[in-house]
Amino acid sequence: MILSTVRAVVLDIEGTTGSASHVHDVLFPYARERFADWLAAHRGEAPWTELMEEIRTHTGDARLDEGGAVAALTAWSDRDVKAPPLKRVQGLIWAEGYARSTLTGHVYDDVPEALSRWRQAGIDRYVYSSGSVAAQRDWFTHSDHGDLSALLNGYFDLSSAGGKREPESYRAITRAIGVPADETVFFSDVGEELDAATAAGWRAVAVRRPGDPRGGAVPGHPTVPALDDVQLHRRTRREEETRT
């Protein structure tokens, strides 16, 4: 697949640049086991205070205590609820795991080369995931392919952009990065996210890794099994017309 007039790419993580099973089988249980210990260890500190207030706001219970906060976080984790307080504390717990070298972020083999190729072509590279910006940065900084953070221009999450199935979230990213919507390409494995991106005027490419139980195609979107199956060019429309 060849796409021209591309100035920015935005990448999902889970199932697109990294393994979904790594998230569900490694990262989520790692954080879930440590909710209570993390809150106890950081009690009274600014991150603890901010998190507790966010949990109380999200649950609607202004008097929720630390035990209730652990219960809420555990319930959200078990149901994979995209709750901002959950994503915040997961990121904080994972950061400690990355710092101790007990965690690494999984990245598919084709991703580093694709990011390098797009950087050389002058195409900006961003990540948009439901995980917190801090968690995203740690994922790529401590990846199993080494530190890839220099290959990325920035990160967006639920707090900075909004829900991934809402067109307005993609419009918010367009405003933030200053690249026209029709010159931005979004890569994701989720059809509803791709639908929202195209509704905001973006171009979208589905990624379905080999062995994905959902099948090898995403209805309504061009689908590839890896990023090296896509060639992106920054040439302008006028340059394209000149070439033809």
UniProtKB/TrEMBL annotation:
Which reaction(s) does the protein catalyse, per the Swiss-Prot or TrEMBL entry? 5-methylsulfanyl-2,3-dioxopentyl phosphate + H2O = 1,2-dihydroxy-5-(methylsulfanyl)pent-1-en-3-one + phosphate
Q: Which GO terms describe its biological process?
A: L-methionine salvage from methylthioadenosine
Pathway(s) of this molecule: Amino-acid biosynthesis; L-methionine biosynthesis via salvage pathway; L-methionine from S-methyl-5-thio-alpha-D-ribose 1-phosphate: step 3/6; Amino-acid biosynthesis; L-methionine biosynthesis via salvage pathway; L-methionine from S-methyl-5-thio-alpha-D-ribose 1-phosphate: step 4/6
For this protein, the record's CDD domains field holds:
HAD_EP
Return the similarity comment: Belongs to the HAD-like hydrolase superfamily. MasA/MtnC family.
HAMAP family linked to this entry? Salvage_MtnC
Q: Report the protein name in the record.
A: Enolase-phosphatase E1
